[in-house]
Amino acid sequence: MLIAQGVKKLMLHIEKEGYKGFDPYDALKSPLFKLPFFNSNKFIRFGIQQLVKRLPFNIRPLLLVPKGYNPVTLGLSIQAYSYSILSEPNNGELYFQKITGLVNDLKGLAATGYSGACWGYDFDWQARNATIPAYQPSVVATGIITNALFVAYQITGHKESARLIGSAAKFVINDLQRTHHGDDAFCFSYSPFDSQQVFNASMKGARLLAQSYSICQNPEHKNLATKAVQFVMSHQKENGAWVYSLAREGGWIDNYHTGYILDCLHEYQKLTRNYQWSTQIKLGYSFYREHFISKEGEPKFYHNRIYPVDCTAAAQTILTTLKFDDVEIAEKTARWMIKNMQKENGSFVFRKFNYYTVRTSYMRWSDAWMFAGLAYFLSKFK
């Protein structure tokens, strides 16, 4: 089977690399940015970071950028191994051991000084308006990791994964800022250090609390998750879409951030048994299905154009369509990606544009996300 072969090749590549690799945003790990001027000029840092990301060839070795051990890569691999236990039960013990090893490594990579377990990326990141140091925690990185831990807990009963989810709930409750919209809705901040109103980020906090609630049955977790969901649903557009954020420059609509919201809503609804927004959620998925996937299964990046074809968007397409039981389109996307964007060594190229392809493989962005998406597909046919 094409998809099973693609997953196996990808798994072997990831393991051969020891889960380490380059990232689209890791240019600032170059020793160049420890030098005076380069270590403080945000315009130079942002510009070079974007240039290195967008080049069709990889210049990181020339810049002496080392391959990173990204906590999100470990989380997504945990998620993929957990799904693989369902599709390959004869290898269940082996995958469980790998999960345990990666969970232990995640504990060592957690940020310190916060109320609970939390994670960031392994590189400095220069945003337009802020400099985010390596390992500074965000609800996005934390929410992706804890979702993987929840999958591991559900499938294997992994107790340490459950404990870390409960710990991370304290980070969300105590360390993230909240922007209130009336008495019954608020938005979790992206990190403890900002007040950004980013819909997919706040929903990752809500999902984490819903997952924690399903484990510990603490009503506060359900209540806070519901208020965060209320905020997101009150900002859904009439056609079912969500923009990225409420910031002036955050008005775009794209594949994977929309998919994140839908996945989180699906999980919240299932775990809390609160179905008051089910009609809006169906509308959101209808928009997603209509605007982000071609008839051939090719994943679209933006709602109004195809290119670039992106690995995170493709993986999220598989994950989201399967959440909503759209197996046929998930299979089409999985096959399209393996045929068009998987390399001979098992890794996936970053992005395909209309006239050229960025063939660099990124461990977190390309490979780990596709590992989780493809493994989830196979788990549906156990």
Entry keywords:
single chain, 7 strands, Glycosyltransferase, two-stranded antiparallel ribbon, mainly alpha, three-stranded antiparallel sheet, 382 residues, 13 helices, 55% helix, 2 domains
Description:
The chain has two domains: 2-17 and 68-379, Alpha/alpha barrel (Glycosyltransferase); 27-67, no CATH class. The two termini are 14 Å apart. The model has no long low-confidence stretch (mean pLDDT 96). Helix 3 (71-87) runs antiparallel to helix 4 (92-109) and helix 3 (71-87) runs parallel beside helix 5. The relative contact order is 0.13. It is mainly alpha-helical and 382 residues long. The strands form three sheets. The chain has a three-stranded antiparallel beta sheet. It has 13 helices and seven strands.
